[in-house]
Specification:
With 155 residues, the protein is an alpha+beta fold. It has a domain of 106 residues: endopeptidase domain like (from Nostoc punctiforme) (endopeptidase fold (from Nostoc punctiforme), Alpha-Beta Complex). The chain is 37% helix and 21% strand. It contains four helices and six strands, in the order ααααββββββ.
Length: 155
C-alpha cells in the first residue's frame, strides 16, 4: 500500500476511534436514567390504584389529583409543589412526542392547569379523577387541553 494511502486510512481510523471514545452527549447519557426514574414513578403510581379521591387529600389513604402526583413523586424522592397549577409551573414543558412514562400530564384551560396525572405511556395516564371516583389508569381525553411536563432532575 502506498504511503499516502496508508496515512489517509490511518487518519480516517483515528477520527473514527476518537468519535467512539468521546463521552455521550448529555441527552444520550440522561436517557437511561430518565427511563429508570419513569419506571419507578409509574410503579409507584400504579401501587395507589383504587384509592379514593378526596378533595384536598395528599395520601396515603386518599388523594386529589395533585396530592396524588405529589405523593407518588415523593416516594421516589422528588418533591413537587402542592397544586396542579404549581406543578405545571415547576415542570419543564415538553411536547407530547417527547413525553415519557413518569412525566406529568396537565389539563390546561387558558394558561391555568386544573388537573394533573402521571403519564403511563401509550396515551394513558394514572390519576385521581374526581369526587366519587378512585385512582385509576385512563386513556388521555380532550387532547386539545393536555400539556406535558417533566420535573428537572437535580444533582
Amino acid at each position: 500500500m502506498p504511503r499516502k494511502t496508508f496515512v489517509a486510512v490511518l487518519s480516517v481510523l483515528a477520527l473514527l476511534l476518537s468519535t467512539l471514545l468521546q463521552p455521550a452527549a448529555p441527552a444520550e447519557a440522561a436517557a437511561p436514567a430518565l427511563k429508570i426514574r419513569g419506571d419507578r414513578v409509574v410503579a409507584a403510581a400504579k401501587a395507589q390504584r383504587g384509592k379514593p379521591y378526596h378533595f384536598g387529600a395528599a395520601g396515603p389513604g386518599s388523594f386529589d389529583c395533585s396530592g396524588y402526583t405529589g405523593y407518588v413523586y415523593r416516594t421516589v424522592h422528588i418533591e413537587l409543589p402542592r397544586t396542579a397549577e404549581q406543578q405545571y409551573r415547576a415542570s419543564r414543558h415538553i411536547s407530547r412526542s417527547a413525553a415519557r412514562p413518569g412525566d406529568l400530564v396537565f389539563w390546561v384551560h387558558g394558561s391555568h392547569a386544573y388537573h394533573v396525572g402521571i403519564y403511563a405511556g401509550g396515551g394513558r395516564v394514572w390519576h385521581a379523577p374526581k369526587t366519587g371516583d378512585h385512582v385509576r389508569l385512563a386513556k388521555i381525553w380532550s387532547s386539545g387541553e393536555v400539556r406535558y411536563g417533566r420535573i428537572p432532575t437535580t444533582g
